UniProtKB/TrEMBL annotation:
<dbReference type="InterPro" id="IPR001781">
    <property type="entry name" value="Znf_LIM"/>
</dbReference>
<keyword id="KW-0440">LIM domain</keyword>
<keyword id="KW-0539">Nucleus</keyword>
<keyword id="KW-0862">Zinc</keyword>
<dbReference type="InterPro" id="IPR050453">
    <property type="entry name" value="LIM_Homeobox_TF"/>
</dbReference>
<feature type="domain" description="LIM zinc-binding">
    <location>
        <begin position="45"/>
        <end position="107"/>
    </location>
</feature>
<keyword id="KW-0371">Homeobox</keyword>
<protein>
    <recommendedName>
        <fullName>LIM zinc-binding domain-containing protein</fullName>
    </recommendedName>
</protein>
<keyword id="KW-0479">Metal-binding</keyword>
<keyword id="KW-0238">DNA-binding</keyword>
<dbReference type="Pfam" id="PF00412">
    <property type="entry name" value="LIM"/>
</dbReference>
Amino acid sequence: MSLFSFALPLNGKRCSACDAALSNWYFEKDGLLFCKDDYWAKYGESCQDCGHIITGPVMVAGDHKFHPECFCCTSCGNFIGDGESYALVERSKLYWRREGFLVAKSLNDK
């Protein structure tokens, strides 16, 4: 699979989803050609926090993927940077590690 192809003569090639004429930049998957919007709509993954398609760098916690700017502590809202410790509570809530242990402890105390 090649994500981007460019500088090739397109000879009237069109997006396999919307039939739009393709420019020099397009996506290819399984032999099909796509415009950017249709490629991400069909094959993109959604951010766990905001729900928008992730088209660039991704932060991963468990099975969940986030935009880097959405990778924030559920409790205080502060950004959790690359390499910083965090806890994933109830399989989807992010907490800075020190806050995560406090939250996890309070959930277990109930």
